[in-house]
Amino acid sequence: MIEYLDLVEDVLTNGKYRESQKPEKSIDAFFRTVRYNLEDGFPLITTRDMSQAWPTLVAEKLWIMSGSTNAYDLLNNYGSKLWLKWAKAAEEKLGYKNGELGPTYGYQLRNFAGKTDQLVRVLDMLKKDPRTRKAVISYWNLGDVVNPDCTNVVDVAPCILDLHFVVLDGKLNLGYDQRSADIGVGVPFDTAQHALWLMMFAKELSLPPGELAINFHLPHVYEFQIPAMKELLKRKPYPRPRVTISDSPSGTIFDHRVEDFQLHDYQAHPAMKIPVAL
Predict the structure, then answer these.
(1) Counting CB atoms within 10 angstroms of each CB, which of 33, 144, 198, 222 has the fewest?
(2) pTM here?
C-alpha cells in the first residue's frame, strides 16, 4: 500500500526527535490522515509478509469485541499470546492479577462508564436510522486511564480514541482517531483490524464497505526501528489482497470465529522483524 509507505516516509523526513514516556526515543509527527477505499482491495501491507500474523490479528479483534480485558482469555479462547507481556507489566506495575489488564478496550467497548454496550448500541442506531451522525464508539474514558493524582489505572492506555461509522451514498464508511501510532508495528495491525470491523459492520447492515479514514495524532517511529523502516521504503508494494467473511454460527456479528475470516491473493515481500517498544 503506497499510502502506508507515504506515511512512513513523511514521518522519517518531517518528524522531530522527542523523548517519550518509554525509554526509547522516537521520531514523531503531528496529525496525519490516511484513507483507504475498500473497493480497491483490503489494506494489509504487502511490503513485509504479515500472513503469519493474520490469525493473531483477527483473534485480537474478536477478543476485544467479546468485552474481555484478560490476556488469558485471548490465549485460551483464541490461542494468542499477544497480550501476555502487557499482562505481566500490568501485574508488576499496577498489581493486577491472573492476566487482568484493567479497563482497556474490551471494557470500554462493551461496558463504557460501567453501563453502556457501545457495540450493541451503535449497531442498533445504524439499523434504525442509517442517516445518523451519532454512530460513534469511544475507547477513551480519562478516569479509566489515570487517577486524579496522575497515577496510571491501566498500563496500556487505548491508542485508538474513537470510531465513527457513517452511511453515505449507500456504503458504510469508518473513520477513527489514533492518539499514538507506532508506525512500524502497531499501525499495520490496527489498520487491518479496523478494515475488518468495517467489513463486519457492513455485512451486518447488508451494505457494501466504502472508505476507511484514519487520523493519526502522533504517528511515530522508534529510533531502533529506523533501519527496518528505511529498508521497507525500498520495497515496491504488491496489489492489495481480498478478504471474505463467512457467516458466524448465529449469522450475526457477535460470535465469529477466527476461521471465518479468509485472506485471499496475498502476495508480499519477505517478513521483517521489527522490535516493539514496551
Answers:
(1) 33
(2) 0.94
